[in-house]
Amino acid sequence: MRSKRIRFQDGTSTTWNIMASFFLAILVGSVLLALPVSSANGQGMPYIDALFTAATSICVTGLVTVPTYSAWSVFGQAVILVLIQLGGLGVITVLTGLMIGLKRRIGLGDRILIQDAFNLNTLSGLVKFIRKVLIGTFAVEGAGALLLMPVFVPEYGARGIWISVFHSVSAFCNAGMDILAEDSLCRYAGNTLLNLVTCLLIVMGGIGYIVWWDVARVLRNVKRQKGGCLSNLTLHSKIAVSVTVILITAGALAFFVLEYNNPLTLKNYSLFDKLQISLFQSVTTRTAGFATVPQQNLTNASAFVSMLLMFIGGSPVGTAGGVKTVTVAVLLVSAFAAIKNKGETTLFRRSISRQAVGKAVAVVSMSFLIVAFSTVLLAAVTEADALDIAYETVSAAATVGLSRNLTASLNLWGKLIVILTMYLGRIGPISLVVAFHTRKENRAVIKNPMEEISVG
Fold first, then answer.
1. Residues 402, 176 contacting (CB under 8 angstroms)
2. What percent of the chain has pLDDT over 70?
3. pLDDT at 440
4. Residue pLDDT, tens place only, 236-292
5. Band of the pLDDT at 10, cuts 50, 70, 90?
6. Looking at residues 351-365, what average pLDDT do you find?
7. For residue 278, what are the domain limits?
8. Does residue 206 lie within any of the structural domains?
9. What is the C-alpha to C-alpha distance for residues 154 and 299, in angstroms, rounded to an integer?
10. In sequence order, which residues have a C-beta less than 8 Å from that of residue 377 and are 6 or more positions away?
């Protein structure tokens, strides 16, 4: 009995450590951003706006109550960038990376924390995994910054280097914050290089590190393997890649059709620009938060498509938020299996465990409850349009950052509600994953009697 109790407490403490690490980072960031040196006018920012900015940065959401490009000094923007990087990688990952750099021993408790934070199935090779994550992240962000410099340096001079770095990190971490203008990237809607690089950074960050290494493994051994590249990937990677491609393609097609004749968005653009703007909108709703068209100008149909894509989000073990692509895929195939009265849930000719199905149900249910509860609360404290409120709360809970011009007009209670929504949206699914990641010994031996009920 004692060993069971110790393991249960380990899992519980892991959850609290992850939650506390994000909460502490928000508090420290808010204090730094409230300092006079962090504001552009040198007089200090109201604490609620500093707290909101710290929360949206560490939760890699991107909703802002004050313009990032004009409200903060270079020091303040640097603090925001550090918080974005911390939030994208995860505070636990960064701290572990520092311990590795300082040659400190990574103990068993630290390894369990890393395992649970990344939802990994083994304790072996965790130090190597963290090292690869950090090196891979900085390499991709560095390459993104270099590719963006031809866009920003000619226009902004030396400051364009800083803008390129900030934008690259923000895009890879799926934060959606920029230091260009209040209307995000609307001025660059027709800039193909900026669109392409930003989309690639968003997808690279959101697809998940596990997929990175799996794709690299397949490409290294492509000559020795039979079949196509997709068939040689693990089941997780097959689902993540397939669902990502389907969602991006379907989303782009939906926006292209629904906004084609909308004079406030696509109507006045060329066919090529309409296509790239539609693609960008589809990608950015996958929890990135940049915008090349004003979100308040979207048709109602496009707004609902955006909310659906935001709610789904990216893939597990990456920088994106949402309920995740793999989660939705597992939930859908399990639903169809139940409809067809099949005894097991299968994907790509592989069986999905009951625990995975249960986890998918729990994550989607919790996320939906967070959105529903936040929507009701926000509607109670603001007189905004219902669609704008729902768009705001889905964006906050899925850590996206797209808004229909509501964030900046929020009152104190509205800001607090959105802060809490962002925090729960970032922490909630992770906490559920940890809760499901318990050992078999923790399961109850005695079962309650079963009784049939009516469902549906």
1. yes
2. 81
3. 43
4. 889 999 999 999 999 999 999 999 999 999 999 999 999 999 999 999 998 888 999
5. very low
6. 87
7. 2-439
8. yes
9. 35
10. 417
* Least confident window among 25-29, 102-106, 400-404: 102-106
Is 58 a member of any domain?
Answer: yes
Q: CA–CA distance from 254 to each of 134, 260, 278, 291, 398 (Å)?
A: 36, 10, 8, 17, 20
SS3 116: helix
For residues 11 and 6, what is the distance between their CA atoms, to the nearest angstrom? 9
Three-state secondary-structure class, residue 124: coil
3-state secondary structure of 39: strand
Residue 391 lies in a domain: yes
As for how many domains the chain has, the answer is 1
DSSP state of 445: S
Residue whose structure tokens are 């704008």: 388
Residue by residue, DSSP assigns 283-328 as: HHTTTT---SS-GGGS-HHHHHHHHHHHHH-S-SSSS--SS-HHHH
CA neighbours closer than 13 Å in the CB half-sphere of residue 177: 38
**The two three-digit tokens of residue 240, written as one number:** 């993540």
In this structure, how many other beta carbons lie within 10 angstroms of the beta carbon of residue 376? Answer: 12
Query: Residue 232's pLDDT is what?
Result: 82
Tokens of 396: 């906050």
Distance CA 82, CA 130 (A): 18
Task: Name the pTM for this structure.
Answer: 0.87
SS3 345: strand
Q: Is residue 445 part of a domain?
A: no
Residue 404's Cβ-count burial label (10 Å; 0-12, 13-18, 19+) is: buried
What would the pLDDT profile of 128-142 be if each residue is shown by its tens digit? Answer: 778 888 888 999 999
Residues 38 and 81: their CA atoms lie apart, in Å, by: 13
